[in-house]
From TrEMBL:
<dbReference type="Pfam" id="PF01796">
    <property type="entry name" value="OB_ChsH2_C"/>
</dbReference>
<dbReference type="InterPro" id="IPR052513">
    <property type="entry name" value="Thioester_dehydratase-like"/>
</dbReference>
<feature type="domain" description="ChsH2 C-terminal OB-fold">
    <location>
        <begin position="53"/>
        <end position="113"/>
    </location>
</feature>
<feature type="domain" description="ChsH2 rubredoxin-like zinc ribbon">
    <location>
        <begin position="21"/>
        <end position="50"/>
    </location>
</feature>
<dbReference type="InterPro" id="IPR022002">
    <property type="entry name" value="ChsH2_Znr"/>
</dbReference>
<dbReference type="InterPro" id="IPR002878">
    <property type="entry name" value="ChsH2_C"/>
</dbReference>
<protein>
    <submittedName>
        <fullName>Putative OB-fold protein</fullName>
    </submittedName>
</protein>
<dbReference type="InterPro" id="IPR012340">
    <property type="entry name" value="NA-bd_OB-fold"/>
</dbReference>
<dbReference type="Pfam" id="PF12172">
    <property type="entry name" value="zf-ChsH2"/>
</dbReference>
Length: 134
């Protein structure tokens, strides 16, 4: 076991600030629409100026689906969800929670959590995010 020397986010909109990981969106400076992927123009107003904005780490489950069939190598079941983070919609899996309707509910309070995707030979650990019950 080699010691982890650094961590990198698996997606570029996950920010791994010390002890306070969060998502960062591109916010349209004209209308305030937020996007996690990079845009050349705003889908709402066609504005082309964006500013980075840090997104709340706590939210509410707005919809979810328990995935029981997936490509080979993908562990199932898992829970894919859409979460309202204080007004910003984000997609992510529900983690640290049994993947069944007994434990995952619409309107459930969740918070951002990170998990390891693995560590390479240089000790660089890739982290992805999900949402766990708050
Ligand atoms: Zn806009």
């Amino acid at each position: 076991m080699s010691e982890t020397v650094s961590q990198i986010p698996f997606v570029d909109y996950l920010v791994l600030d010390d002890g306070a990981p969060h998502l960062r969106a591109h916010e349209c400076t004209s209308c305030g629409a937020r996007y996690f992927d990079r845009r050349n123009a705003c889908a709402a107003c066609f504005g082309t100026e964006f500013a980075p904005v840090d997104i709340a780490t706590e939210g509410i489950v707005r919809s979810f689906s328990i995935v029981t069939f997936a490509a080979p190598g993908v562990d199932v079941p898992f829970v894919a969800s859409v979460v309202d983070l204080d007004g910003t919609t984000a997609k992510g899996n529900i983690i640290n929670c049994p993947p069944d309707p007994e434990h995952v509910k619409l309107g459930m309070k969740v918070r951002l959590a990170t998990y390891s995707m693995g560590t390479d030979d240089n000790g660089v650990e890739a982290l992805n995010y999900g949402f766990e019950p708050a």
